[in-house]
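[scheduler] slot 2 assigned
[scheduler] job type: sequence-to-structure, two independent chains
[scheduler] chain ordering preserved from manifest
[runner] begin chain α
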Amino acid sequence: MASTKSFLQLGVASNLLATLTELGYEKPTPIQMQSIPALLSGHDIIAQAQTGTGKTAAFALAILTQLDLNKLKPQALILTPTRELAIQVAEAFQSYAKHLPNFHVIPIYGGQSYTIQLKALKRGAQVVIGTPGRIMDHLRRKTLITSALKTLVIDEADEMLKMGFIDDVDWILEQISQQHQIALFSATMPLPIQKIAQKYLHNPLTIQIQSNTKTVAAIQQFYTLVSNQYKLEALTRFLEIEDFEAALIFVRTKLETINLAEKLGARGYHVMALNGDIKQSERERIITKLKNGQLDLVVATDVAARGIDIERMSYVINYDLPSDSESYIHRIGRTGRAGREGKALLFISPREIQSLKYIERSIGQQITEIKPPSANNITEKRIQQLMEKIIAVINKGELEPYYFSVEQIMKQYNYNALDIAAALSYLTQQKNPIQIEEKSFIDKNEHLPSTNKKNHSKNKSRPRKFTRKKFNKNSN
């Protein structure tokens, strides 16, 4: 049966299989099952699939299988609607090609220095990934040479249309005269997309994959507005208030997995970092600890968390904004699996509110806003925990040796038992004081857009779906 096929049976190159195992890929998704063999056989394809179905790996693995690594010329060109998706797809290619010698990929997009891009293109790469505007610029300058091009991928074609890029895509396709394969991926197929397909694709195979939104809908989803400088404090408050068995915290970079894990560890949490630099043996050790309850928190990057399916994983926190809605779906899909309850929290800064709206449109549902826990919430929780500790100690019946000390303090210093009990409670809470300061988690200087749905729908300007600033710094 087709459903039982492995990546090897689909035709994926043997030198990619070990990497897929390291990344936690167990079996192909439906879109990979259908797309990979079609692409490897040279067909043009139209793949209608929602985000979160594994389409990036579908075209990336097929492209990598067919590359001539001895040629440093662009053999594959991937068009993406946003710079953030271009970066994410480039990172995916890098991770899949971890064991491929002499592999090079270049993401090119608006807002990045031309000098950097020109140097990279001059050095050469087998795969180029970019946004339509900047790809057009390089084609006009003749700095992007397509003479060796074998495959062109149009990713998220309907988003290209929504953002006004479809004419740019048309122009790019017209410039490539030699025979090449085209793969068009789109969640929906509006008429302008159909016209592009009819104009440029030759006898395409059509692939339709059912949406993942049913799985997403089963997970309780929340977002909280918090400025970047207050994220750590907001995170620790949520971790203290929420009832969960184990939590997966997603960040953007390898470096941040280490930094955040160290900060949470210093606050008393059992936490470890999981990123692409972690060896397979260490990864397995971390997963085992999560399963048996020796570990409560893991701070991870997108790629490192693939394949994690742990019954205790009841909470996913998007500490950093995901690159796109597909990443969001993959992330929160680590919880709420096989009918189990799951909860997901997304940290959004005021400047990223449009990204939230894009995610909501992509998954077809609204995400509920929740405020960071207040000082009163924390106080109530800590008092309750202290009471439970005290009652547990009383119930153990081992207080007899301590009565003498309390009686001595009462006689010698004339303190009552209530004062002494309160002082002892205070001593136990030195690292976790009962009272904390109330504060705002939004920077006064940071503009907070209205979250009113109607107001957003009236905004005719093109939204910046995912902010580059926060993603490119220290990105790995």
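[runner] end chain α
[runner] begin chain β
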Amino acid sequence: MKYKINNIYIEKKFIILNNFLNKNKYNISKVILLLDNNIKKYYLKYFLKKISILKKSKFIIIKSGEKYKNIKTCIKIWKKLILFKIDKKSIIINLGGGVITDLGGFVSSTFKRGIKFINIPTTLLGMIDASIGGKNAINFYNFKNEIGIFNNPILIIINKNFIKTLPKNEILSGLGELLKYGLIYDKKYWNFLKKIDFNNYKNIKWDKIIYKAILIKKKIIDKDPYEKLGIRKILNFGHTIGHSIESFFLSKNKKITHGEAIALGMICESWISKKIKKLNNNEYEEICNIILKYFKIKIIKEKYFNKILNYIKNDKKNYNNNIYFSLLNNIGKCSFNKKINKTLILNSIKQMNKIYFLKKKKKNEKI
């Protein structure tokens, strides 16, 4: 089955992209394919076989990894675009995960004051979050997405066949965001996801899961495309602490996926939601149990708490030296602009550490 939401297509083949490039209604002068070395290794041959017209395009290949989503990489790409004599009628196709679609969207939006781009996400996270919503950004001084711009691709092609090739950690990275959509906006979707065994991801029918996730995100951003009204901020649930955890691990050169960090952030921020008497204890425990079914807690030692707090203080939702969160009222409903003090924030991380040690103790007792 093929799904369509505005300019977003979910399909098994690349019929839409083939038709788009062959009809050339935008009078495209040149096509540039942006990808990383992993995508080149595993997907490029398959991709060019499906879309033969792209064999004539120019290729820009960068190193893979979140640490390369920075201004240095942008400069390298911009230089290549100049070398290729790219003009305003050219188009960039971003083939890859969230790093590529974020970086490629930012580069496209700023080169010659903006050239058109297409996103083709190859990870679950890219399909349901990173490539959708018009946010294009790069990291700066280990701060996540610190420099960015709003601009939408003219086309997003989601080919679910890519999911079959992904390792489990990439599936779980996307799962963190899927669970978030249910928690902040749609309890029915949360209950739908609870019934699925994501450990057995290769046998899952992904069409409905992806379609509903995109639909939820689109409903939210269409109400507040540039974060002027505030409603779009609910998409940041789990991200205030989650991004700080991700930034902290990046600074230590330790591996953590975006979804892992957000899952931990959601545990912490659900606890804060409970402490300010928004979320009831039963729902808090339900959230923790579902998240911990798939994600492992990573201990953060108290000696690093100030570093975590410094990342949180730099969050884009903050103003007037106050820290603001998007927090749950209950499962399926989220509020935003909730001012939270640093003591409560640090206690939420302590509580997450406590959950780890309690789980470890129970496991040892069973043995």
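[runner] end chain β
[qc] chain β: The longest helix spans residues 342-366.
[scheduler] slot 2 released
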